[in-house]
Design a protein that fits this description.
Length: 230
């Protein structure tokens, strides 16, 4: 009996060990992808004369209604200090990619506007990390869906840990209603677009995203993940 217990506990610890190994491998894989993208981005953007933070500011402005945002919004959403955001915006203005203007309704507020030149410099072709897209295309359709839903979970966890401040994802959007429809391919619903959504249509950076309250996010998350953890 004692020997059986040892064997059982040996199996259990080996299962736990394997799970820990897998988690470590996944973290290492994600880190490798992050490093690869960062180094490519740095090389490419270095040639274009844009640093990573400058590009992030342009991309953020591009995603905003009217392609403009206050300096404090930029600082908040990119998780940088206000003086850093001001400095980057001033640099982008010197490059004529951004223009600063006082808000018409409140002269104390400074808005950063994306210029036409700034819009071109962060267009889809330069935003899309081509090699990552090619790598994603190598996955089968079911694998892509699994990766997308896994990324949603990873990004949400990073948000909870304070590493990502804003992600315009369906799962934290006030218009998102998971598992509303009987259709297994498109069980979710978007109130804003008024369309059913499947897992493969989940957005990670939606232009019409509106943040939900924390209670709504928690409820939607429980509903969204509940159908996957069973
Ligand atoms: S508005 Fe965008 S983020 Fe929100 S539920 Fe609809 S598709 Fe998703």
């Amino acid at each position: 009996m004692a020997e059986q217990r040892v064997i059982k506990s040996g199996k259990k610890s080996s299962v736990l060990q394997n799970a820990a190994d897998l988690t470590t491998q996944l973290a290492a894989g994600l880190e490798k992808i992050g490093l690869a993208m960062k180094s490519r981005t740095w090389r490419r953007e270095g040639r274009a004369g844009l640093g990573p933070l400058q590009r992030q500011v342009l991309t953020l402005l591009r995603s905003k209604p009217g392609q403009r945002a206050t300096v404090s919004t930029v600082a908040n959403e990119l998780a940088v200090r206000l003086p850093t955001a001001s400095e980057v915006i001033a640099t982008l203005e010197r490059k004529q990619l951004v223009r600063r203007r006082r808000d018409m309704s409140d002269g104390r507020i400074v808005m950063a506007h994306l210029t036409a030149k700034g819009n071109r410099s962060c267009g889809p072709s330069s935003r899309m990390p081509d090699r990552l897209a090619i790598a994603a295309e190598a996955l089968s359709a079911p694998e892509q869906v699994v990766l997308l839903t896994s990324l949603v979970k990873v990004i949400r966890s990073l948000q909870e840990q304070g590493e990502i401040t804003v992600a315009r994802m369906c799962v934290s959007c006030q218009y998102f209603h998971p598992n509303q429809h009987g259709n297994a391919d498109r069980p979710h619903h978007c109130d804003s677009l008024n369309i059913p959504l499947g897992d493969r249509s989940l957005r990670l950076d939606c232009q019409v995203y509106e943040p939900a309250s924390s209670s709504q996010v928690n409820e939607a998350w429980t509903n969204f993940t509940g159908s996957r953890t069973a």
